[in-house]
Amino acid sequence: MSEPSPFNATALDATSLDAGALRAAFDQAFASAAATSDAEGDTFLLLRVAGDPYALRVLDLAEITRYPRVVPLPSADPAFIGLTSLRGAMVPVFALGVMLGYPPAAAPGAWLARCAHSQGMIAFAFDATDGFTRGVATAAGGALREGGGGDGGARRDVVVVGGAVRPLVRVADLFADIDRRVSARRKGS
Questions:
Q1: Which H/E stretch holds residue 22?
Q2: Are 73 and 37 in contact (CB under 8 A)?
């Protein structure tokens, strides 16, 4: 891997992050991604769920924002929180922690990651962000499937950041899980 980009976890102080600084870094990460080679890897958002570190590819994101007003809606799915309006569109919000196998939290999270889905946009609530970094995702095998609260469904690859391993949240796996949950509920009704 090449030298760390200016968009690494230490470039943004996670204790004083505001939405404007995160937005600027997010936009800059997209700009730098086009100027680097595939050998240098991808840009990742470093995030936390229930205190555990994760990474998410920036190219899978449409937007990162502070947790907005979300209208809770009744649902049999514990991962579904409700709906919010982002950029004039109604967007379903899911708890990323629950999607990863953690028990439902009392608070939904401080941040939302809005991602494109075949049916529209979906947002995932998570607890904290540690900034951005460049890196390469590698296969983890089954090593991360035990412990840590997650069920491993969306945790097959990892990103190494500063010597620490972060499971990679695969947005496509989250979407597939949501599609399965919706299909199962439709068949059961």
A1: helix 19-35
A2: no
What span, in angstroms and rounded, lies between the C-alpha atoms of 19 and 75?
Answer: 30
CA 115 to chain CA centroid, nearest Å: 9
Cα separation of 73 and 103, whole Å?
A: 19
Residue 178's nearest CA partner among 103, 95, 83, 106 is 95
- Look up the pTM and report it: 0.74
Residue pLDDT, tens place only, 58-96: 999 999 999 989 999 999 999 999 999 988 889 999 999
Tens-digit pLDDT profile for residues 25-40 = 666 655 554 444 455 7
Distance between CA atoms of 135 and 137, rounded to whole angstroms? 7
Instruction: With H, G, I as helix, E, B as strand and everything else as coil, classify residue 178.
Output: helix
- The pair of structure tokens assigned to 31 is 């700009």
